[in-house]
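Renewal narrative, Specific Aim 1. Our central claim is that a sequence can be written position by position from structural information alone. The example that follows is taken directly from our test logs and has not been curated for this report. It begins with the structure tokens describing the chain, in the order in which they were read.
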């Protein structure tokens, strides 16, 4: 169905693999178009609880924008492509369900920016994270200048973006860019465990919590106001009633997403 993506679904967990292994899974126009179609397809999938994103092969998550295509980019196409990818990554960031990036190697340029748009990042020991754009005479265009400083602080983000030099998995863990580091062989199993844990939680609470945390990233009082409203809304759900009752009755809760 897709040329550059592989999608599998097991229970409520989706696994999307970026698949251009011969080009280190670099983001081509075709791949971007397919990502858009993929998002159109899953947005209405009510069964889906968590999405995991990874890259094909054992070397790369995504090694950035396709540099062959980048060679052709001028001001006009640069603006258009940047806006388009910003929109796609924002759709991933704001997806109703959490998205886990399982970074299995190079996450450079647009690959780093894709990982940053995910809700949670885990990686393998061989992962490398970098924003090499400056080395190509450009700056990140897929949201990296906004999301990286929020996640790791402006000083560290500046260093990565201004030098273009990558950091390894251990350093990415140390600065909070990734939550956990695993041997490559166990990365997908561990990512799946994390997805299953989140998928076992009540879907509406997970959705509201994600939305409120995302709002905090915009800064200002709006995030706190939204948090209060969504907290109030979550108190009206059947799942809340069931969760509280199950706790008090010392039994397992059965959540319906209502
Ligand atoms: N765009 C297009 N092609 C890419 C690519 C990219 N971003 N990254 C890698 N490739 C291609 C290489 O050109 C090569 O193709 P070829 O076999 O047809 O020559 C193939 O993928 C394998 O890459 P190679 O460089 O041989 O592997 P490596 O293990 O020596 O190095 C990287 C891997 C990721 C360090 C290196 O490919 C690299 O620096 N890529 C560019 C990263 C970048 O600057 N991205 C940001 C763009 S804004």
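The sequence written for that structure reads:
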């Amino acid at each position: 169905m897709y040329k550059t993506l592989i999608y599998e679904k097991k229970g409520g967990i989706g696994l999307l693999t970026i698949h251009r292994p011969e080009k280190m899974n670099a983001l081509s126009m075709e791949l971007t178009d397919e990502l858009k179609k993929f998002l159109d397809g899953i947005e209405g999938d009510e069964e889906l609880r968590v999405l995991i994103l990874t890259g094909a092969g054992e070397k790369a998550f995504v090694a950035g924008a396709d540099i062959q295509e980048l060679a052709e980019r001028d001001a006009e196409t640069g603006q258009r492509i940047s806006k388009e990818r910003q929109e796609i990554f924002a759709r991933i960031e704001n997806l109703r369900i959490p998205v886990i990036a399982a970074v299995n190697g190079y996450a450079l340029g647009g690959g780093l920016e894709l990982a940053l748009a995910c809700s949670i990042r885990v990686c393998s020991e061989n992962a490398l994270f970098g924003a090499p754009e400056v080395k190509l005479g450009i700056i990140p265009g897929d949201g990296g200048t906004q999301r990286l400083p929020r996640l790791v602080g402006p000083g560290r983000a500046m260093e990565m973006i201004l030098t273009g030099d990558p950091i390894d998995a251990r350093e990415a863990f140390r600065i909070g860019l990734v939550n956990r580091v695993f041997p490559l062989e166990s990365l997908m199993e561990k990512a799946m465990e994390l997805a299953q844990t989140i998928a076992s939680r009540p879907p509406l609470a997970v959705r509201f919590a994600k939305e409120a945390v995302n709002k905090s990233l915009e800064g200002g009082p709006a995030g706190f106001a939204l948090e209060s409203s969504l907290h109030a809304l979550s108190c009206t759900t059947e799942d809340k009633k069931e969760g509280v009752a199950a706790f008090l009755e010392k039994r397992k809760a059965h959540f319906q997403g209502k």
